[in-house]
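Figure 2 data, in text form.
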Amino acid sequence: MDSSHPAGIDVRHYLTVARRHILLIAALTIVCGGLAYAYSASKTPIYESSSQLLYSPQLNVSDPLNQGYVDPTTQELQMQSAVTTITGPTIQQLVMKQIGDPATVPDYSVSAAVTTSDANASNPTDNGVAVTVDSTDPHWAAKLANLYAATFAAYDQSSYVARVKKAEQYIAGQMKTYTTPAQQNSSDYALLNQYLRNLQILAATTTGDFSLAVPAYAHSTPIAPRPKRSALMGAVLGFVLGVALAFLREKLDTRLHDHREVGEIMDLPVIGRVGRIPVEALAKGSLVVMSEADGRAAESMRVLRSNLQFASLGEENRVLMVMSAQKGEGKSLVTANLAASLALAGKKVMLVDADLRRPRVHSLFGVRNTHGVSSVIAGFCSLDEALQTYHLSGPKVVTIHGNGDGAHASESDTSPQLTLLTSGPIPPNPGEMVASRRFAHIVRELAGKGYDYVLIDSPAFLAVGDAAALAGVVDAVVLLVNMKMINKPTLEESRDFLRPLPPTKLGVVTVMDSVGRNERYHYYKYSASSPAN
């Protein structure tokens, strides 16, 4: 894998997963949004109203000219006390007493909070307390907010007056102890008399520390529920759940979904993609590059051929082995068509069937299998005797020899051809045969005959160890992966199997792949920067 773009690969992977599960994500988004909207719309509307109490400390009658400074700690304590009192049972009982019949009051809740007009205000008297009531009736919400605020302001005033009256009574009692004229003419008596007058003035003029500054009014728009907002939040939640579920399913799903995923797991370029070959096309012959030359399968083979040639540029990859992890993936069919496609392109091609357990090359080409690899290794025939020439269909050239009555015609086949070395009779010890020195000598001898490509069809490497033995005598390997048969664990096992093998790994060919029409000519993409060695 190209390590220079890890972030791009991750983003592409995430987008691919999201696209693959787009229906699931969309369904959860719509369902959760719809349920949230329906639930919110079914709830009883709640209206909110707030009144504002202004904190204004009492005038100090003992020093009426010095009223500018208010101790912040005292102010904070008084306002926090006001918040607690407003929401407490005392004010609630006083409010209900004013209403008369509590049964007429709809459900409501009351809260209070310290507020300020400016957090950086230099005048702390700008602070106040907001009284907020939530109710199912907007008019009752405003009425109760004003009642709670006014009731608390009156309660605060009456409490203050009560404290002043108590102080008056105490000072008056102290003054009664001065009984003689001399005592009543003393400075102490005069000071007590002044305190008493101040308290009397304060009791007559007190308004409390809080006053209703901003009354509440009824709002026509409820604060809850808000179906649209709930639907949006539900849709967002559904989308997040959908994405999470998509990645969870992706984690638990061992299937292969596309060729990019195969390339990333194998850390190899995908050099070819072959879709499902229709049964109708195979009924005309296994070599679809000839029987269905204009079909999509044949075009896939030609693209594979071109990519294989590009992947081999500058390398001595003359002897290529096509491998697959499991039997029945379509390796022999693809190898046979690749060999035919190379031959049709003018290349000199040799195709060797090294699968001595389940050979298929002879049946795909419709040739005899009396002599082949096993026969040559066993010494029953020479290599040249086992080779078969297969002519691909093409025009015949008629040549006229001589003149007059002695003239005669001869035909010559100018069609492309390739050479086949079939498996031969199935031996009792196929593993030992392909691992023998004699087989390695056969491959070297074929490589020296001037072929452009020597393609070797090998048995499935996860089933038997023949492919590992064959890897020591080839220049490069190509892995074939059937998208409908192979899962991710098997592909990872294939990667681990191929990694230590000595030949160059040119790339991966996927079969039973979902190849779209727009990908017919340009679907090959590398997931690695170069073939792995």
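Caption note: Residues 1-9, 121-125, 518-533 have pLDDT under 50 and may be disordered.
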